[in-house]
Write a structure and sequence with these properties.
Layout: E1 5-9, H1 13-25, E2 29-33, H2 36-46, E3 50-53, H3 62-68
Parallel strand pairs: 1-2, 1-3
């Protein structure tokens, strides 16, 4: 499982921090985004293995991000 990439998308820095901490302890590479626009850019560039997506985001909501992905 080492090296698998997870994209965490949430506008709450504390949530990103906690999730990143736990996931890194389990050997995952974590990438984070705080809004939908940035998340879509990162997802296209990084091609994560898994995305953890909040629904309430400041610019594009999680549903729209999911549709775009």
């Amino acid at each position: 499982m080492s090296g698998r990439k997870i994209l965490v998308i949430d506008d709450e820095p504390q949530i990103i921090e906690v999730l990143t901490s736990y996931l890194k302890k389990d050997g995952f590479r974590v990438i984070a985004a705080a809004d939908g626009t940035k998340a879509l850019q990162i997802a296209e560039r990084e091609e994560p293995d898994l995305i953890l997506l909040a629904l309430m985001l400041p610019d594009i909501d999680g549903y729209e991000v999911c549709r775009a992905l």
